[in-house]
Structures are given as structure tokens and as C-alpha cells.
Structures
1.
Amino acid sequence: MQLNALYVDFNSYFASVEQQLVPELRGKPIGVLAVMAETTCCIAASYEAKAFGIKTGTLVSEARKLCPDIIFVEARPPVYVQYHHFLIDVVESCTHVEKVLSIDEMVCKLTGSQQQPENALKLAAKIKSAIAEKAGDFIRCSIGIAPNTFLAKVAAKIKSAIAEKAGDFIRCSIGIAPNTFLAKVASNMQKPDGCVLIAPHELPQRLFGLKLRDLNGIGKQMEARLNRYKITTVEQLYAANRQQLQVAWGSVEGERMYDKLRGTEPYYVKNARSSLGHSHVMPPEQRNEVGVRAVLHRLLQKACMRMRSYDLLASRISVKVKFRNKPSWQQESAISPTDNTLRLIEALETFMRNFPTIDAEPYAVGVSFSGLVTADEVARDLFQVAPLENEKKLNQAIDSLNSKFGKNTIYFGGAHEALKDAPMRIAFNHIPDMDVESDY
């Protein structure tokens, strides 16, 4: 067994980028919010804020109690995506990036002499040094060749405040191990700005000092499930055989865990995309039925453009509205496979006829398309050839105009009252395509 994986995990990524770009935030506790509202929660926290116990998911009100001096900033997903691509290029200048796992995580495959511990550690140091040296170059080149008006404005605001060592606030923890899973575990063992190597001969003993939830893929519910099978430590987890773990997980994932703990890279079948959607925590002024309808229209139109960029059709649509202190309202329906915005709007409007009249504040909404298929998988109705072609041309024209002149250049009227709502969001396993999902 050899060292095969080098895992790069950027620390408190959203908060760190904000501190990188806005010097006034450096060294201060900050919380990044999806929307500036007292009723929302932090989607990221700086290490200074984490020291007070603030983390992802902490409510704004609770964060203020834990740290009265905390500074809240509104998330800027387009900036984080731009920085993400820049940082990939920085790491790529040192060694090949095998796979991008999320907006702030990537893994590099070690080969040849890189697999020797001393060389792997030198490579990790080289990556850290390159990030520190070049992170400021991104800011300067954004100022010179900002890809859109929004980023140009951001760059202009911070131009005068760039520090001499502009990369000091973009830090990463690096893990080196025989497989991706163990390299991820190693990257979490020393944060922030750490570097941990788990050598093959150290397995499995090096893992026995960890808690079950220190292992990626074991959360609160999975830990409770394992406990029911008398597995309460990593040592007991390692001692369990393949069949026992398959039973404990209730799926093949248990067998994969068996292999991952032993340094083997498990085999995964690449599944086709099965669903996509958008959700949004609404600002206070939109928390009513009119606002719900407008934001749902906005989310649906964004999701339609994204779906068409994948050349997919939806055969099921669902919407969800969360109410404060009341059960959520959800509607779902099968539809003839389509990517046509007008048809999906019709489905949405049908749902809205059943919108509940209750004395509760709606605060979050979501639209989801599932049962995604390609056009080749759908039998077309011979009697609707002309209408389908006309619908296709209409959607292509809308997408083309919005891509060329900016989002919201043309849109369906239902979204008119929510054009500034539901901006780009970054999910853990989805990095937005700036050409398709940018709001600017």
C-alpha cells in the first residue's frame, strides 16, 4: 500500500474569502448569511467566530448571544465561484487536480516519487506557498479583466485595501494518505492551516484515537445507528467484518466503509443526474403569499434554464414552502417530460391554487425537478411537433438573450416581484456554472 491521495480543504472558505477581499474583516469574528435577516442562520463562520461556538447553522440571534461583536456579511456566491476556479489553477500549477469534490475541497492523485512521504510533504508545502503567494493575483487580475460588472464593482471597492501579502487569509488544511477517504480524515485532524500524513504502516492504529463522527460519512443519525449495533469506537468499527458493516449501514455503503478504512479506493458507479432544484430563505418583506408565489416563479425559471443547459427534461415537479412554527406545505406531481418553462409554470400555478390559508409566516421556499431524462428517452407526440418546436425556439431565445445581456433581461411575469431574490447559491456537491447560473 502506498500514499495515493493528497486532499486540499480550504478552511472556512466563504468567510476566508471575505476576509481576503475586505481587510477590515481580518482577525474579526464574522458570520456569512445567505440573506441579511435576523431570522436566518450562518452558512459560514470565520475561525474567530468559531472560537465562540458559532458554526454553520447557528441562528443569527444565537450568534449575537455567543459573540456580541460578530459582524454579519451577505454571501457573494459569484465571487466564491470565481475564487474557486482560481484556486484550482493555483493547485494545478503544483500538481494535477484529480477531482474537485466541492467548492472548497479537491483531491490530487500522488504518483511516482510523490508517493514517498518526504516528497508528498514537500508538495503540500509547495501548494500552501503557491496559495499564499498567488491569492492576491486573483484580486489584481479581477480588477484588470473583471468578467462582469458585478465583479468589477467588487474589485474596485477593495483595490485600495489589498494588503502586501494578499494571500495570507486563504488557508487550507492538507491530508495525505493511501486513499481519498483517509486523506480527507487527515485534513480534518489539524485545522486551520494544517498538514497531516497518515502513512500505510500507521493503519489502523492511527485512526483509533478518533471519534466515530470524525470519519466522513458518519453523522449524528449514523452514529446512533452504529451504537445500536454495539459499535461505539473507531476500533470496533474497524474490527467489524464486511457483512456486519453492510447490515449496519443497510446498504453497500457499509462495505465501502470497510474498504475505505483499509486504504482502498472503493469503486463507485457514476450515476446520471436524477434531480435538480433551487431553494431560498426569503427576506422579511416577501414572507407572504404574494412573495411566495413570486419567489417560486423566480426559482422555477432559474431551474429551467439550468436544466436546459444539461439537455434534460423533467418528468416530475415539486414545490415546498416552510412556515415558522407550522408544518411545511408541499406539492408534487408527475408531468409529461419537458424543459419548457411555460408548461412548468402551469404546474406551479396549479399547485398554488391549493396554497394553505394559515396564520403562519412562510420563510423558505423550494422548487425541484426530478425524474430527469434526455430527449432520446422520450417518445414524442406526433400531433404536437409544431408546438414543441415553437416552444423549443422560445426557450432557446430566452436563454440566449439572458446569457448575452445578463439575467432578467427577459423573464416570465410571475417572477417580476422577486427579481432581486433567490440569488446564486452554492450547494456542497454543486458548483454553479457562471454562464448559466450567475445573476449578473
2.
Amino acid sequence: MISVTEAIETLLAGSRRLVEAENAELMTATGRTVAGDLVSPVYVPPADNSAMDGYALRFADWPGAEAELSLSQRITAGSVPSELETGTAARIFTGAAVPPGADTVVMQENCEESETGVRILKMPAQGANIRPRGQDVEKGQTVLRKGQRLRPQEIGLAASLGFAQVSVYRRLKVAVLSTGDELVDPGTEAGPGQIYNSNRFTMNAQLAAWGFEVVDMGVARDEFDMVKDMMLEAAERADVIVTSGGVSVGEEDHVKAVVAELGDLGLWRIAVKPGKPFAFGHVRGTPFLGLPGNPVSVFVTLLIIARSYLFACQGTEDRGLHAVPQKALFSKKSSWREDYIRVRSGSEGVELYPNQSSGALFSTSWADGLVRQATGSEIREGELVDYLPFAIFS
């Protein structure tokens, strides 16, 4: 048995980026990985601008609350102001450029305008309500780093700097293959001894959600030659192969034998629950990850073990999984394996799904995260545990 940490470290030690850079339209780049540092060519904002509707003036020109200042101009967002005349104020609106010579904006609620001018009833500190040029982003500032994954907020940031395209890595092609005579696809009738193939859909959906290009290979029956042919095709069509089932020690588990013949195979028994049998190797030089066959084991090992490796192959910086301390609303005895427990969080803490079987797939939908229980560690009700919300795996 090897630990989860050892398994991940071994995978990462043998990983490398498998994709090249390309340009992508910004509108279609969500989820892609930045292929080079993005440096701002502009200041944001490009000029000093008003943080609110009000009046712009020189702080030194304020004559007191009883006297008026004449209005020399009206400045709306998008217009270009003139230099402020000495002893005057300018009507200004949120986002509008502050006129040269003005150093303070007074919110309109503290002013009283008349036909002849405006009285500043309450003067703020000098420089108030002005957003200076470059307050958000300086020209020449690196705003996105190579290896960073583009979320909606990074897309908006790039747009604010004027980028219509970004350099990103090509989407990693991941071939997905399920194995087993008992599997039938949804939409067909399951006969005696058959079950619907959930693993195919779980893997396809998760890999697509991570931004990879999925090459769906379907199902391989428990026949050596069929598994071999499909693995060879997968190696030709994809950058990485991910399978479910067929890597245990049964006579009909042909995946491990095929991989050993076509390349190299490391068959690991990982001290993880659910999970344990996990394979890693190469098929004609194409990396191969063999997940267990039980549906929850597929889900957990994909998130906990395979994810970091796949991100490394994509060129994506993986900052690791940072657990959130939560109070356990349950007790659980220690295990000789590192256990990933399906839980749901609430205002009082995290509650346990009652059936933690590796076949209880409904538990993954009921839950909103996992509790990581360290090897040999008992969980007592009321103590803090390591909670991994599903959102951190995105």
C-alpha cells in the first residue's frame, strides 16, 4: 500500500505538459489555461475619475458653506473635460474624468445647486471621491500568470485591458473508456445481470467541466482483443487515457494485461477509501490512468488523485486542495486507509451520509463535499475535521 500523498507525488514527478499554445478568442476562453504572462498595456482606470455624482473643484477654492462657486462645465462619463477654471466647480457624474486642476469631488448630497452656481455645504478631505489613474491596474503590470486557469473574473479582467484574444494552451484530449460486460448505456433496457453505465457519464462530465476535450471511447467488453484494440485507438486519438474498471486482480480484468503488453504499467494499491486499486502507465507512449470500477471510487479517485496529474499535463498550475475546518456532526472510527467521507455542510457543521458504500452514487449528489479522515485518526462528534467542498475541485 502507498499513501494518497505518495501516489500524487509519484504521478506529478512523471508528468509534463502535453499541449502547445494557441490563441483563443476571449469570449470562448473560459476554463482555458494561460500560456504566457499577460501584461497590461494600459492604466485602469485610464485617468482620474469621479467615484460618484457630485461636483469637482480645487480644495483651496472652497469659499465656505455660505458662498457659491460658479459652474464652469458639466462632465459626463465618456466626455473629455477642459481644465477647471480657477474659483469654479464642475458638475461631474460617476465614472467621468476629473478635469485638470480639480483635486476633490464633493458628493451631490452635500451640495446645493442654484441657477447661478453651487454651494458646498460640507467639504470632504482633499482628494476625496477621486479614483486615481491606475488605481486598479498599472500599465506594465502582470495581471495573469502562465499556468493560470481563466475563470469568468479573469475573462472580464482581460477584457478591461483591451485584449480580444489570449494565448492559451490547447485543450488536453482525454480518452475515456469504461470496461465491463455488465454495463449498458442509459436509454436501453438493462437485462438480468446488467447495470447502467454511470462511470462513463461521471468521467465525461467531470473532465469536460475541467475544460478538457473528452474523447469518448464508449465501453469495452471483458475481452482481451477488444480492450487492446480500443486502447490502441485511444492512444492515437488522445493525449491521456482514463479508464474505469479492469485494473483489479480478477481473471476478466484485462486492462492491466493490455497496458503491460502495449507499454508499461504500474499497478498500485493506494491506502484510500473508497478506491484502492489504481493503475498508471503508458500505452504506446500515451499516459494511462486506470481508475477502480465502483462508481464512488471512480468519482473520488478522479477528484483526489487524477485531477492534479491531468492539470499538470494541461499546463495548469494546481495550487492543491485546501481544506476548510468544519465541526463534525457525527462520529467515525479510525481506518487503516485515508477515508474520503461524503458529507453535507450546514450552519452547525457537516453531517454524514448514512451509506458510505463505494457503490452508493446517490451520496455524491446528496453531499456538497468530502471530509478527509487521516489514516488511523478517529472522528469524534463536535471536533473540527478537514472539509473539502466540491467547489474547490472545479
3.
Amino acid sequence: MANFSVAIATFNRAHILPETLGYIASQTHKPREIIIVDDGSVDNTSEAVELFKNESGIVIRYIKIDNTGPGAALKTAIESCAEEWIALCDDDDKWHPDHLERRSHLIDTHPDVDFTFSNFSSFGEESIKNFDEFNTMPQDWWHSFAPKDIYNFQRLGPQLLPNFLAYNPVFPTSVCLKKDLYKRCGGIDAQYSRLGCWDAHFTWRCVMHGVTACDHNITVETRKHGKNFSKKRSHVNLERAQMLEQAWKDGWIPNVYANDISTAILNSKITALNWAWRDKDHELIKKVGNSVALFDLPGKLAVKVLVSYFLRLIPVR
């Protein structure tokens, strides 16, 4: 069976982190270690971790750094892991007891894979009842892959950047990857650490350089509450477009993906404009609209952009 390190970035979650650590400690297939990087917390996180460590007997390494954002903190955690396989977990999420056992079974079943993820649900005060990520996503996304096996695992294959630009079903808490892949793909780019979509950049690198497989069973749950690290969807999608533009300039994406990148950038801007219109955020509409040609937009959206332009010209009395 595969041996796992667990990488966690945390910030001011002393009241929640022990619950998450409890789910990890209750795994039917235990991890070898848990690496916790504290991203400059000002609460009693260190004491909460020490208390849990003493009570559970789990091998935990606690590292405190200056506040750098969740992406950079997780980068530090991953790069401090010792085992061949690294499992990611957000500091407020939940693993089902068989999460690592099923992931180890998936790895044994498809031994060439080095990037894996699973289906997920949600819990908490703002969760959606019976949420199932794989059921909510476009079902034709799966059509280009080999069918699921008898264990509900699916080998998706290598070089999947276009697929994951079109739709990304990966949530960090469900990810397990090989340390070797992390090194080969360039890892987490800390310059995007504070963006609402920093993890997408990391996923794109992994699926472009690795061999990907997934578990269709729900093995993790994401906590939904008012203090999640998130932003308005309009801003997240604009940041996603800007991140793609920068990734293209940085040169790590081969020219063969030029059309896929252009399409993804345009679609992100279209989504940002739609959410900005819904939020009546005319300044953001102006910002996004200035970076895209009207004739590249769907007809109704182009009209909305023009209406927004004239609304900005009319003084508010």
C-alpha cells in the first residue's frame, strides 16, 4: 500500500483544525506524518496542534511562517513532506475514514498514475444538501476517457491540460500526488498565492505533466461557511483569465495548447462579465470589457456591456 504524508496550510483556525486532524487520524489507512504550516496565525493554533499531538500520538510537524497566503503556505508544507505520496487537506475540511485506503487502492490498481483526486460533497452552514461535484459538472466532460472500473476508479490519462481548462473538477482536499510529479511540474507558484483560484494553476501543471486518475466515490467534504477563503465569482474569473495570460507569457505551456489557452481566457472573461452584470459591478465590467472585443462576446452579453457603458455616463442624482 502507498505511504502518505499529509500537507496542511492553516491560518487562524485553532477552533476548527483539531476537528480536521481528527478525521485524518481516524483513517483506516494511516498517514506516516502530517505537516502543518501555520501561515502567520495570531490565535492559539500552535497550542491546539500541540494538544492534539499529545492526545493522538500522530506524527505531526508544525512549521510557523510569516503570512504569505494559502498557496505559498501549502507550497512550504508539500516541500517539507517526506513520503512518496502527498495528500492535501484544507484546514477546515473533512475526510471520510476510507479516503486514504481507497486512494491507496486506486494507486495499486493504476500504478502508472501520479496525480489523483476524488469526488466531493460539502458540509457546514452554507453547504448544499446532498451536493455531489461529479453529478453537477458537464457529463460530456467524461466522454473522452476510458470507462470507470469495478471499484469506481477511472484512469484519465496524461497531458490533460485542455480538459481541465474546459472544466476543473479538482478540489485540493481530495488531491493525492507523487512528490516526484510535484518536482517535475514546477510545483505551486507562490506569485498566485492570494488569488481565489491559485489552486487551479497548480492543477493545470499537474495534469499537463502527470498521469491522472480519479475516484468517483465521495471521500471528502468541503466546509462551507462565511469565512472560507474566497472572493466574488466575477473577480475570481477575471483573476483566472489574468493567471492564464501570465502563464502563457511565462512559457511553461507548449504552443500546441495555444487555442485551448485563448478559449479558456475568453470564457473566463465572459463568465466574469456575466457575474459582474449580476452584481451590478459596472467598474469591473469596464475593466474586463476593455480587454476583450465586443464581437467576441455572445450577443446578449455584448448588449449588457454597452448598457453598462451608458449607465456609467449618466450621473447618479
